[in-house]
Hints:
Layout: H1 2-32, H2 48-57, H3 64-76, H4 86-111, H5 115-164, H6 169-179, H7 184-197, H8 202-212, H9 216-231, H10 235-290
Amino acid sequence: MMLLLLSCVVLLSVLLIVLGLLAPVRALDESARRIDRDDNVLLASALAPAVRVLAMWNEREGLAGYRDAIERKLLLAGRPGGKIRGSEFLAAAELAGVGGFLVIFLLLTLAGALGLPGFVFALLIGGLCIWLPHLWLDGVVATRRTEIRRQFPFFLDLAVMTIGAGSTFTETVDTYTRDNPHQAISQELRVTLGELQMGKTLQEGLTSMIERIDVEDVRQTLNSIVQGQRLGTPLVETLRDQADVMRFKRSQFAERTAEELKVRIQGPAMMMMISVFLLILGPAFIEMLRGGLF
Length: 294
């Protein structure tokens, strides 16, 4: 009876740990798809007290560079989960590692197979769970970078048409973000629009946007627009020139990708040809062997 009760307690503990770890991750994934998220899902979760304690520990001087790198990634990822600091993200990763270790440790203890190898295995799983949040963040940054690279040329073409027709840059941004509310570039444009409405100049707003985007083609285009504004070049002319440059770069990228695909497809194509030859000639060769022709 006591063994059964202990087993139930252990299983319930494992379940609670898993649910506690999955809740912030699920909230982060949901918030990554939203616009203008200002809260902090880690501090709003059930693990908030532990996150605060570990975040204070992660504020030590030795982790300053690592914290800055994580906060930079969070900025490039579009602030998934809201205003999460680097120390808080580290705290969440550490909690994931502790939780992963405890889950495996309890399961092995319940199965009676702990020992030294089991303990080392639990430590390895804990280390893997610490690494997974960083891997997830890198994936969000890469996905967002790809989305911005694909979406920005469409905004640029729209800006050329609307500003050429007499609209202002602010009106163009407002129109694009309302029509495409869930795009990554719309989130950045919405932040820029808010800065312009608060009194920043177009140069200052675009310069701030450059700091939040890690796509070289987009950064070069925005830098050209800022430089044109400093030199007094009409905005529509600068946008038109940059749209032509962006269109040329996209055609070059498409041609380069097509050439790379030709090389990559050669290996699978050769394997398919060999497979077809084996399927066709294999049975005939076996029949000839049976018939004594060889």
